[in-house]
Design a protein that fits this description.
Blueprint: E1 22-33, E2 36-43, H1 46-51, E3 59-64, E4 68-73, E5 84-89, H2 93-99, E6 106-113, E7 126-132, H3 140-148, E8 156-162, H4 171-179, E9 182-188, E10 198-199, H5 202-208, E11 217-222, H6 225-237, E12 245-248, E13 264-265, E14 268-269, H7 270-273, E15 276-278, H8 279-286
Parallel strand pairs: 7-8, 7-11, 8-9, 9-10, 11-12
Antiparallel strand pairs: 1-2, 1-6, 2-5, 3-4, 3-6, 12-15, 13-14
Helix pairs in contact: 5-6
The protein binds flavin-adenine dinucleotide.
Flavin-adenine dinucleotide binds next to strand 4, strand 5 and helix 2.
């Protein structure tokens, strides 16, 4: 991506030690929902721990010897770096091995990698965060950061959906987020006994949003490709432009530094040009099945 790229504001920094895996020890394990767990990790090298910084939207590569490496987003507070927070869904080799680990076990960690959400560009604006399922963890650092500087932003809204009420992440934080000035709206694809909230897909939450100033809003979306496309389409229909919409994309990733080509999407490498893209730059490729 060129220096003059319109998304340079959230560029990925070159990694001087991109191949060096640090040792991280698991300090805390918190089961979230079925198959999804949040880990607090601490780098064992004090110098590495001291210098580690990340921006909302970036990810680490977590390494388990004998299993491999996986890209996992930061899901914790970027302003509080005592531990690094990762929320992980069991998917395959690496994440299943991590799921078997206990407090005190160690794994390898490279990072941070990738571009970040355009938080700086949101000052004075309304912000709509849209998350589907495991798409909420990469947006949670934005929530923490914006709520710590709440006065800088206009209306901040979270539209969040999961398949069922049992699959909703971080529900115990919703009340605190609301008290701090986040408008949290939730929906589920399928209801369950006791559920009194919305039923339907996430883009419908956007349709129902009444207080909405398209000219002064920045939208950040993370979730399945189809959900991101329909949400962006809804936002465009309501008067937003593609330059105001940002998405975080996911593809199978290996090297994380733009060499192996596994995560290529059209001309872009998700690992170094993404995962966060401005919508006009990535939308042509999101539409192509299997790309
Ligand atoms: C930038 C980025 C950030 C991510 N952040 C998180 C996160 O915060 N939490 C989390 O739980 N997961 C996250 N993921 C997804 C995670 O990297 C994959 O689930 C990972 O492959 C799991 O590794 P594994 O060895 O356990 O599974 P694998 O054995 O690699 O994969 C299991 C199955 O999932 C498929 N698969 C692998 N990667 C992907 C992918 N990216 N998209 C769709 N299908 C895939 C494989 O083809 C296979 O069928 C992220 C991915 C990217 C690219």
């Amino acid at each position: 991506m060129s220096e003059n790229s319109p998304v340079a504001a959230c560029h990925s920094d070159p990694q001087p030690n991109a191949w060096v895996s640090q040792t991280a020890v698991i300090r805390e394990i918190r089961p979230e929902v079925s198959g999804v767990t949040t880990y607090q990790l601490a780098l064992t090298d004090p110098t590495a721990a001291e210098s580690y910084r990340f921006r909302p939207g970036q990810f680490n590569m977590l390494y388990v010897p004998g299993a491999g490496e996986s890209a996992i987003s930061m899901s914790g507070d970027p302003d509080s770096l005592e531990t690094l927070t990762h929320t992980i869904r069991e998917a395959g080799n690496v994440t299943r091995r991590i799921a078997d680990m206990r407090v005190g076990d160690t794994l390898g960690l490279r990072g941070p990698f990738g571009t970040s959400w355009p938080v700086e560009q949101c000052a004075g604006k309304d912000v709509i965060l849209v998350a589907g399922g495991i798409g909420l963890p990469p947006l949670r650092p934005v929530i923490y950061h914006m709520l710590s500087e709440r006065e800088k932003y206009g209306q901040i809204t979270l539209l969040y959906g999961a398949r069922t009420p049992e699959m909703l992440l971080y529900t115990d934080e919703f009340q605190r987020w609301r008290e701090q000035g986040l408008d949290v709206r939730v929906t589920v694809d399928r209801s369950a006994p006791g559920w009194q909230g919305n039923v339907g897909v996430v883009p419908q939450l956007l349709e129902r949003l009444q207080k909405f100033d398209p000219a002064n809003t920045v939208m950040m979306i993370c979730g399945p490709d189809i959900m991101m496309r329909f949400t962006a389409r809804g936002a465009l229909q309501r008067g937003m432009t593609t330059e105001q919409i940002w998405v975080s994309t996911e593809r199978n990733m290996q090297c994380a530094v733009g060499l192996c080509g596994h995560c290529q999407l059209g001309p872009e490498f998700i690992c170094k040009d993404g995962p966060v893209f401005r919508y006009d730059l990535i939308s042509p490729y999101l539409k192509v099945e299997g790309l």
